[in-house]
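debug: dumping io for the single-chain case to check the tokenizer round-trip. Nothing else runs in this session.
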Amino acid sequence: MNSISCTKPLEVKHTLVFRLKQTFLHLLKRCAQQIDHWKRCSHNRQMMAQMDDHLRKDIGLTQSEWKREIAKPFWRD
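debug: decoded output
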């Protein structure tokens, strides 16, 4: 039997399962990171909405910039 042309089906199957598992775990990690990012954006906008005019001016935002930022949905950067 020629060892070059002979592939081990079980070995190929394990490699495929491993790659699918790694891909799934990577996708799951990216989803968790995205949700965390959205939570931070939402929190930051909620905090920004509570700012008084003095603090808003202190960080250099005009009232229109401030209103536009706090009106954004959580998923938009």
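debug: round-trip ok. DSSP finds three helices and no strands in the chain.
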